[in-house]
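Minutes, project check-in

Agenda point 3 was the complex the collaborators sent over. CS summarized: two entities, 411 residues total, and the question is how they sit relative to each other. Sequences were read into the notes so everyone works from the same version.
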Amino acid sequence: MDSATTALVAAGRGDEEAFGRFYDEVASLIHGVVLRVLRDPSMSEEVTQEVFVEIWRLAPRFEPSKGSARTWASTLAHRRAVDRVRSEQSSRERDTREHEKQDRPADVVSEVVIDRFDRARVQHALAELSDTQREAVELAYYGGHTYREVAALLDVPEGTVKTRIRDGLGRLRNEFGVES
Amino acid sequence: MNHDLHHLAGAYALDALDADERRAFEAHYPSCDVCAEEVDAFRDVATQLAEGVHTPPPGSLKASVMEEISRTRQIAPVVQPNVVDLTERRRRRVAPLAIAASVVLVALLGIATLGFNRTSPTEEVLASADAVVLSLDGTDGSVRIAWSDELGRAAVFGDGLPITDDENEYALWAVTDDGVAPAALFDVDADGSVRAVLDIAEPDPNGWGVTIEPNGGSPQPTGEILFLGTF
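CS then shared the predicted structure for the full assembly.
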């Protein structure tokens, strides 16, 4: 068991100190993915906090036999960030006022500290994808778009996007050497 | 529909499905070996993508998180539910006046989506390969029905429903080409919630309706239609 997983198991028994250790282990991972999707730093901070509180609340249900704490936590964080994007989106669409100021420049991530090694490794793996696969995977995961939105953005059929995502992930799976 | 669902594991793992497809896929994949395996693997890939954008949060955040968790109650751990033997009951043909079973509340809370707890009766319906989940339209509370034609069962998830008096109970109606047919009866808990698995005799309904009827049910709805939804 990796150290984050060990800490989360202990946190699941109500151990706040262990949760503090878990926080230290995964804070950059969680905040990184939330910020990448939401882009807005103050909203991201708020969502990161919500994610941690939710992880604490659900920790007694975490089953290490079904996957690592990092996967469990980052899955929850990405889902939460994406749900926030979509609920903002629909309230913005209901609200006919134009809120273009929400669209921030695309390079916010480069302004912050990034774990260089991990970043290089992921960039290297992404570089192995075809351009169209990479585009689809990045727009979906980092962009927080549904595959239908990705299809609209790229002006290609939805089925094509589904296939590109699936094939792209299959390739990344090999690149990362993911065993499941 | 299931043929299509098999192609959604990638998009699902990236949270790139819209709400309806996400629900449909979540009802499908736990019981599909191929999809379940793909979801696990693709989630690990997604985690790697997350590892590529590490960004530490502001230092002050930890104190806020620790402060908030110190006053947040944790959810109860999963205990093995006391599963009512539905196959046994079904053999005895209690249907269509059916059965409220089920225990665990987690089913639709999104916890199920993380792969927990695949065994409660409601989950069994949700997890069946042909399950179709429908949110019914109504004003007072919410009702969702997961229906498996193969199992001949529906799982009812209701919340915020008005409590009936002792003389009445809830009735689920199957909407068919010929009109409505009585499907099953159920009760809600004191907090207005219901998690029940109902045996349904009606083959291939087009939708569902909910009314309150005198105990024992009625051949046709006599109460106001509280909830209605069609596929």
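Noted in discussion: The mean pLDDT of chain B is 79.
Follow-up: revisit at the next meeting once the mutant set is ready.
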